[in-house]
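Example 3.2
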Amino acid sequence: MTTKKPPIPIPLLMLIGIMAISFSSIFIKWSDAPASVQGMYRLLFTSLLMLPFARPHSGAVHKLSTTDWVLLIFSGIMLALHFLLWMGSLSYTSVASSTMIMALEPVFIMLGAFVLYKERTAASAMLGVAIAIGGVCFIGWGDIGVSADNLKGDLLSVGGTAAVAVHMLISQKLVAQMPSYLYSLIVFSVAAVVFALYNLVMGIPFFDYPLTEWGIFLLLAIVPTVFGHLLFNWMMQYLSATTVSMSILAEPVVASILAYLLLSENLSNLQWAGGLLVMIGMAVYLWAERKKVDSVPPALENAS
């Protein structure tokens, strides 16, 4: 994990990113288009918005090795799979249940980071993870797996969580050696192409959608993708994949509140209590990670 300090305070960046990605499930619920179409245009529009600002990073493209390109393509495939499965899960289960399962992402990433990068997590940080995971379990307890449709949605969300964990682990490796902006642009473009091929093979229409749907596609690109995923990819220059994913544990809390306000999805007292546990768990984890960074000797810190 790098110890560079970002030009903007990390807590502010995390707050912006969490708020942005929390609107994703709301926009998806508002749309009647297939999940694969939502995902395709979400990533296509994001790539088009990013393209005019990519020129300063164009020189880095020539430095990419064959291995880098393979990893970039695989990361894009995993991102597309994440969106396809998770966005699809919202057709079968509630926002609270789906985002609760997605919040298990740090568990997948911690295991992967240990296996691939030998990245160890302090006991105090693990305690924070346990508290936060317990909190998100409370959030989704009221409606998880009680019917065949809910169970299908839950399984789709688990698959989407595993896919995004792989995507984040690849991000940690590649962003350390190439501009995060270029990484995001390439991966988003690859994922958009994957969606286009999927829709073509499945015979899903590309254009036959009302104007309101196109507005939702654009909102999905700007809000949760640019100010969410793109921002979190950029933060990977300064934080580990585990730390970034841990911040996303706040998404079930914010998304559930938004679903209550905008979709009339009710929350129980147990779910509100879970939200409090998530915040406590995040605070414990981030405190433990900050202690680890602060303990790095100055000479080693400058070497990064």
